[in-house]
Design brief:
The protein folds into two domains: 5-119; 126-335, Aminoglycoside phosphotransferase (APH), C-terminal lobe (Aminoglycoside 3'-phosphotransferase, Chain: A, domain 2), CATH 3.90.1200.10. The protein contains 13 helices and ten strands. The protein has helices at residues 12-19, 66-84, 126-132, 137-153, 161-179, 188-204, 206-211, 244-247, 251-264, 268-282, 288-309, 313-316, 321-335, and strands at 33-36, 40-44, 48-53, 88-96, 102-104, 109-118, 217-218, 228-229, 235-236, 248-249. Strands 1-2-3-6-4-5 form a six-stranded antiparallel β-sheet, with helices on both faces. A two-stranded antiparallel sheet has the order 7-10. A hairpin with a 3-residue loop joins strand 2 (40-44) and strand 3 (48-53).
Length: 340
Amino acid sequence: MSDASASDRIPLGAKVAFLQRAASFPEGAARIEAIETHMSWVFLTERHAYKLKKPVRTDFLDYGSIAARGRHCEAEVGLNRRLAGDVYVGTVRLVANPTGTLQLGGKGRTVDWLVKMRRLPAAARLDDAIAKGGVDEERLHAALERITAFYAEAPPAAMEPGEYRRRIEREIDADREVLALPSHRVPLATTERVIEAQRVFLRDRGELIGRRAAHLVEGHGDLRPEHIYLLAEPVIVDRLEFNWDLRIADPVGELAFLAMECERLGAPEVGVPALDVYARRTGDRPPAPLVAFYRSRSACVRARLAIWHLEDPEAAVASPWLDRAARYLELAARDLGLAC
């Protein structure tokens, strides 16, 4: 994957404009649906989804160069085939000919990379099924079985108990640093009470947390309902590719995160079977206070990510992110037994 400084001079806007045109896709698309996320653009044809990563750099990811985006595209395809199979078709070069005309694939100077996926039916997504009040329990169970099997086979990533506790402590500090800023307008009193309760739990139940360090695996990293497709053969997509450390997780923590997100969407009963399926298969049934702590931690992290969206001037106008952050904090407080 060669990189060239001239390639970076083609602005993102020009690439997005090109990819929004149906004629740009060799598969004969009739129309293109473009979706912008915080870190990428997704372009949907009738049969495929193409993901273009934005040239962003943060403390936890680096998409700053063409070569880096190419590496991350390849990593995303490789990592996600474990839970999504051939849904991840491969990577595609975006190239420019000597006159600067863009095209997908073929000869020319590489100016970017895209992940190509088979397009999946939106109606099969778990979050969509929750919104419509029609979750297929049999297919949900099959998806949870697949996720649990994935954890059972995932590469172990155990760390020293003290280091695991310190890692969580650093994450708590990072949450407070963002959520407590007055400019972010989240309820400061709730934030302080939640953060203090998490620190007390980490201090008083440090031995319990430390024991979980032996259970760490290289997991999914972002196990949300919108990434689970309840098909005849379940598919789980968007395994986090850009930071290995963020994939290192306690399976119980990831499943608690999924349950918390299902509750946020108004269906707490949907997330309940996740830990039961995992416990039956592995024999690992952690105590309820630990699960509640993990749920609270996940909610705070998601609140922090929601607040980060407000730093984008365009997203900050009439956006749902502030309300979403407040809702996450409400869930975090309740899981810790705190009145909101």
